Amino acid sequence: MKILVTGAAGFIGSRIARALLAQGHEVSAIDSFNGYYDESIKRRNVEELIGKGLRLTDKSINEVSLPPLLDGVEAVFHQAGQPGVRPSWGASFEGYIDNNVAATQLLLEALKGSRTLKKFIYASSSSVYGDAETMPTPENVTPNPRSPYGVTKLAAEHLCNVYAKNFDIPSISLRYFTVYGPGQRPDMAFTRFCKAAVNGNTISVYGNGEQTRDFTYVDDVVKANLRALVADYTPGDVVNIAGGTHASVNDVLDILRSLTSRDLSVDYSDVALGDVRCTSGDTRRAQAVLGWKPAVDLKEGLAQQLSWADEVFS
Ligand code: UGA
């Protein structure tokens, strides 16, 4: 198939693009290489893929002429976006509007009337739920984000739904729950913890570390996307992609201690604004719609990330 991956230089986008190339698809990509984190990490993510045939447009969705990029495209994996829950307050919110809301609307608008498009797979987020009352949380609870980031991810989901209903855009929103694994973004907890652990530095925890997350291994997320490419979902559908882990940050630190056989120096500070207390995704719908369930457990996945961090950071 002829496929476009947006945000293909990012942590998840690059791994989806790699899997699609391995399946023999014709894959093009767009990434703005924005400066949220070190651009060289993103360049390294795509280098190998370009060698395997990935055609990369090095621009923002908001600046490029979209029709040539979308011509004949049969599936779009929309992974581009401004990530980060905690930095989404204040002046930086503009970037969240531009990259999460406006960029999604521009793509959907440009795809209206496409005669080739069969799938539009949007990378949504567990942050749309906020502090949900039901755990594990099914997709039909009323979303109630707690961060400006979550508000923009939810707005883009609504756009996918509106364009599905009015223009038959075959969209599905996959709500990713805290994705981790080798290559994870440098601002996220596991990369920070593993980097500090391999270098013997102090780990910084926001709050008392009792917040829990449904951590999801990146290969499982890639598999969910590949399932969405062939699944018979209803346009406008929404599905949780959650790892089934339900561990607290302190539990994660205990696993790290056992994996490294070291005591870790940990510094606890204030709860970060926008952080939720607990996430837990009900994956029955993912199983029914995509035939997907997570396969990698937390200890195994964290061991993979730690050994990657040992190579990259020590
Ligand atoms: C992650 C991603 O960053 C979002 O882009 C994504 O949309 C979101 O998951 C999601 O599931 O919707 P988050 O859960 O905050 O957000 O992921 P981490 O950065 O890995 O943080 C996990 C927990 O560790 C949070 O409670 C955070 O406050 C804590 N943390 C993080 C620390 O205690 N110390 C750190 O140095 C970093």
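^ uridine-5'-diphosphate-glucuronic acid complex. Residues 83-85, 125-127, 176-178, 188-190, 192, 204-206, 211, 213, 249, 272, 275 surround uridine-5'-diphosphate-glucuronic acid (CB under 6 Å). The mean pLDDT is 98.
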